[in-house]
Each structure stands twice: as structure tokens, then as C-alpha cells.
Design brief:
By secondary structure, the protein is α/β, with parallel strands linked by helices. The protein has 13 helices and eight strands. It starts with a helix and ends in a 5-residue tail after the last strand.
Amino acid sequence: MKQILFTFLMTAAVNGSLSAQSNDLKINQLQVIGSHNSYRHAIETDLYNLIQAKDTTRSLKGLQYTHISITEQLNKGLRNLEIDVQADVKGGKYAHPKGLDLAKSQEAYDPNGEMKKPGFKVFHMIDIDFRTSCYTLQNCLAELKKWSDTNPDHVPVFITLEPKDDDSFLGTKAEKFTTELFDALDKELRKGLGNKLITPDMVRGKYKTLEEAVLNNNWPTLKKAKGKFLFMLDNSGAKRDLYALNHPSLKGRAAFINAEPGKPEAATLFRNNPEDAQITDLVKKGYLIRTRADADTKEARANDYSHFEAAKKSGAQIITTDYYLPSTFFDSSYQIKYDDGSYVRTNPANK
């Protein structure tokens, strides 16, 4: 009996609250809760305090959050993740963060030498905010695939992917993204997840442009999307345009982008303010929207759920939070989940 109950609870966590729902739902008719900077482990205390003491103009309070492993988040039922990637073509560029020279740490950094290998690395800020649950994108994708293979009927996972190339204020220079690096990024996504990807080509189908397909609700059904991942680049401006360059309607690309309505590439939009009055209308038109329940620890410190309530009501399909679990850094009961304890439900704005 206990084993049956355990199996039922695990199935409910993996499939959210949709296990009894129709497989004919389109994926833009879901509303999921996920995590922001999902790989991130908090800056160690001594380094945090040192930086804060040296630069009193810079508040680090917004960085006082941490995450359990990606596998644990997925097992808990989250269906949105965020991964930041830094390019490192030759390998070793970020193998010894300068923050380790500023404050001694009791925790080993990169004990298996993953940062020395060529390829995309996963962490938040060069030299300072470098603690991570998966050092490389390759390892991150392997973790996703392993979990997905174990749970082949899972609700699709929406992943925000942010290519970062900001230099460190301690002097380390980032590797700037180019069209060649974006090609390499796509290649790594396909290598890691293969036919588990939901790509712009799949959504565009027979339509002339990706946006035309989206406005005609050509998103895949839940039945077809189970066991898959959809990646969205969290960039606007130059990097976004560079990724789309020579790929009209994102033809041949592995990820979607934050293109504005009216553009042929428009499909997934970022509206981080959940009180944006346009979100519901955009959702009803067919776009897939990402918004945030909280940011920079502000809502959690104040136990303020107003943004989460606005996000739910808006119909934005993806709601991110740092607090699917309460904070371990300050006293607060703030925790984001649906009323039934799940992280997936039918979208109230376009069901």
C-alpha cells in the first residue's frame, strides 16, 4: 500500500495537476511555475560579506537565495528552469574565480576539473557569483536527459537560456558571443537532448512565419510535447538579433527568442512585470509569455504575494520564482505554488 501511494505521489509531482486533463491541450494552454537561475548556489558568506563591506554602494541582498539540485526541482514538480551560459572555447577561462583569492572557502571548487574543459559553462557572475550545481552546459543537459528518460511522460519543461558575456568588475574578460558561438550553442543543445527538443521549425510547420503559426495556435499538443524541452533565449537587442541573423523565422535554430509582436520570429515573449496589462491579450492571441512572481528577494522579504496573484491572473504561461521553498537566509514564510500544492495547471486565460 505504501509503495502504491508513493508511486501515485511521484506521478502527481512529475505530471503536475494535469494527469486527469486532456492530452489535446496545447502547451500554451498550460501555466507552470519554475525557478530563476535554477543552477545557482549562493555566494559563500565570507566572500559575500567582504564584497558588501568594500562596496557599500552595491547591495547584494538580491543575491540571497539558493537552489536545490535541478533534478530535485523537477521531481518536486517545477516545469520551468533558467540556465545561464558563458562561452569558454578553449577551456579554463573561469577555472579559478578571483573571488577565491579574496576570501578563503571551506568548500572545494570544481573538484573534478570540469571548468578546465572547452565548452559552455554555467554560473551567474564571473569571479564573484560562481557557485553552481552543474559547472558545464553539457553536464546540465545530461542531468535533464537522465531525469527525462526516467520520467518519459513528463509535462514539457520550459527553459530560459541566457547567454552572458559581461566582464567581471575584478578584471576577468568574458568571451563575447558571435554567430559562430550561437551555432555551437545550438549544436550542444541538439547533442544533449536530441529529439527531446521542441524547436521553432516544429511550431512553424506549414506556415510562412513562426509568428503566423503562433497566431494560428500551432503549438504542439500536450500529448506530442510530453517528455520534451522548449528553450527560450532571455536576451533582447544585439545578442537576440545575432541569434536570429540568417535564420528567418528561426529556421534551423534550436531555441526561441524574445522577439516583439509583429516580427516573423515572435513566439515567446518576456514580460517580467506581471502587472503588465498587455499580457492577457498577448496570451489570448497565442504568444507564450514568461513573467516573474518575485525578483531580487523583495517580495519574499515582505511576504508580498501581489505579483504572484497578478501573474496567475494574467495567464502568462511561465511564472518564475526564487522561492518554491521558503528562504534559508532570512525569516519569511513566502513560498510560491498553486493552491493544491502543484506547479502546473490549466491556464485560466485561454483554457
